Amino acid sequence: MTRLLGTWLLAAAALAQTYDIVIANGRVMDPESGLDAPRNLGIRGGTIAAVTSRKLQGKRRIDARGLVVAPGFIDLHSHGQTPENYRLKARDGVTTALELEIGVNPVRPWYAEREGRTLVNFGASAGYIPARMAVMKDTGVWLPRDAAITRIATPAEREAIRTSVEQALRDGGLGVGFGFNYTPKAGPEELQEIFHIVARYGRPAFIHMRWGSLGEPGAVASIQEVLAYAVTTGASCHIVHLGASTTTKFDVAIPMIEAARRRGLDITVESYPYVAGMTRIETAIFDPGFQERLGLPYENMLWVATGERLTAESFARYRKQGGLVATFTNTEEMIRKNMAHPLVMIASDGIMENGMGHPRAAGTYARVLGKYVREEKVLTLMDALRKMTLMPARRLEAMAPAMRRKGRLRVGADADIVLFDPDTVIDKATFEKPNLYSEGIPYVLVGGVPVVDGGRLVETVLPGKGILAAP
């Protein structure tokens, strides 16, 4: 009885305290506990200190009446790691944006450059591709365009690549990023060596699969290659943009993932809610035969810099030049299946460069909430939030302790929080105007600091922190 009274008194004292910020009268939705009810949140020192139906006192009060209060969205696949991209992320409800597919190398200076200078939390994997590019002196921007594509690495180069990747992991890289079809001359032995390192450090491999969904070898062989490395090394694997990689073969691909998981493999997947992908035209993806592999005629390719659809002549010209190209290869039917499947997380694969890029950089999360939840009812609101918050957090938390405090709304969790109107939230970015901010997301907090306040960016605050793997 005495213990119960003491607990009650402590709880009462906590409720009587003044918080830095109180979020009042919102529909609080927490995917971890399943809570979906009116609650008040008290925030202190960047942490959620109270979740209660009782009235709270705060230095500042945000009235969330009519709004959903959810954990901030976690984007596992955000190539854009610049202030321009962080602004777009914040307006789309993203509080943590991570570059895990390609990754970075070296890791330490990349983090140091951003610490104390970002709107949202950031992080990156130890990049195998940038390591290979540096060792082999490839001249590409961000992705390989010559030596790392066309040459088999020498034994000395392979050793240097391994050393570079391992150093990036020691420096806190969040797993290792791979792009099999960006480095076609990286053979099985070279990749097997890197996967052994991934397994030894107990961190995931983030993998862009090798082949297009159509033609031969196709989607099944692509997934089998990933599974072979997972089985033979024990590495955890995460397949990026599964929907874009498998397109109309998603129904064939996802049962393979389900079967592998039933057999104990640690393998997860993500997708984005658009029928078009985007990458750089000078990469190995567009080597001869790409149209058959991808089911991609020239007219289904859009040159980002001008908005023009390509022809054989303009494709050849721009390929020599290099730059971003959008590729329309998927269907709305397949996107709906991706969004609905319980194993598929949401991630943007976004990048914006001086206002040019793919609308997914600006609108991925609002698009899911507005188009696929509210308008098309492809999935429930709670399921969508789970795919955007808790599932990505759990994918990373075994290696990155900070992620155990994200993706949830509970006492002790980081106050990375998004408030949105479920009746109006929607993406506005298009392929013609890809950098338009999403609407219906009036408040976003990162570490308890509003970075979107009343629908406006607050660019005088920089509360983002680097997410690192534990040693």
Could you explain how this protein is built, in words?
The protein is an alpha/beta fold. The protein has 3 domains: 2-71 and 410-425 and 432-457, Urease, subunit C, domain 1; 73-275 and 327-402, Metal-dependent hydrolases (TIM Barrel, Alpha-Beta Barrel), CATH 3.20.20; 276-326, no CATH class. Helix content is 35%, strand content 24%. The protein has 16 helices and 23 strands. It has helices spanning 2-16, 83-91, 108-114, 128-136, 147-150, 155-170, 188-201, 218-233, 242-246, 250-262, 290-294, 312-321, 332-340, 360-375, 381-388, 390-396, and strands spanning 18-30, 35-44, 47-52, 57-63, 68-71, 73-75, 94-104, 121-127, 176-179, 205-208, 237-239, 267-271, 276-280, 301-303, 308-309, 324-328, 344-346, 352-353, 356-357, 417-420, 443-446, 449-453, 456-457. The strands form 4 sheets. Strands 1, 2, 3, 4, 5, 20, 21, 22 and 23 form a 9-stranded mixed β-sheet that branches. It has an 8-stranded parallel β-sheet with strand order 6-7-8-9-10-11-12-17, with helices on both faces. It has a 4-stranded antiparallel β-sheet with strand order 13-16-14-15, with no helix packed on it. Strand 2 and strand 3 (47-52) form a beta hairpin. It is globular, with a radius of gyration of 22 Å. 54% of the residues are buried. The mean pLDDT is 95.
